[in-house]
């Protein structure tokens, strides 16, 4: 899963990383910090290489916590 670290984005320009995403999962409203459409993202990692704003993080554990280890 890709997380956007907005503190690293100056939010004053068109995000050049939109062009590196092969599936169009990086979105931007105006010059605001970009965000990720997690439904589209394939975790290819290209954005991570393009800018430190994008960081690979572990998937949050939101399910199966009641069924694990049973
Ligand atoms: S990891 Fe790949 S698919 Fe996902 S947002 Fe970054 S460039 Fe796009």
Q: Which terms would index this structure?
A:
1 helix, Alpha-Beta Plaits, mainly beta, 4 strands, 70 residues, binds iron/sulfur cluster, two-stranded antiparallel ribbon, two-stranded antiparallel sheet
Task: Write structural notes for this entry.
This protein is mainly β and about 70 residues long. Helix content is about 5%, strand content about 15%. It has one helix at about 45-50, and strands at about 1-5, 25, 35, 55. The longest helix is centred in the last third of the chain and has 5 residues, at about 45-50. It is globular and about 35 Å long.
In spatial order, strands of the major sheet run 1-4
Number of helices, counting only DSSP H or I runs of 4 residues or more: 1
Structure classification? mainly beta
- Detail the poorly predicted runs: none
Biggest β-sheet strands, sense, barrel: 2 strands, antiparallel
> Under the CATH scheme, which class?
Alpha Beta
Instruction: Please give the share of residues in helix.
Output: under 10%
Q: Averaged pLDDT, please?
A: 91
General shape:
globular
- CATH architecture term: 2-Layer Sandwich
The CATH topology is Alpha-Beta Plaits
Ligands (ions, cofactors included): iron/sulfur cluster
Order of helices and strands: EEEHE
Question: What percent of residues are in strands?
Answer: 5-15%
Strand count: 4
Query: Rg, please?
Result: 14 Å
For the termini, the CA-CA separation is: 27 Å
Domain tally: 1
């Amino acid at each position: 899963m890709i997380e956007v670290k907005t503190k690293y984005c100056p939010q004053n320009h068109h995000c050049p990383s939109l062009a590196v995403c092969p599936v169009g999962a990086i979105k931007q409203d105006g010059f605001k910090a970009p965000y990720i459409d997690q439904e589209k993202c394939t975790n290819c990692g290209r954005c991570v290489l393009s800018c430190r704003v994008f960081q690979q993080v572990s998937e949050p554990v939101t399910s199966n916590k009641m069924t694990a280890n049973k």
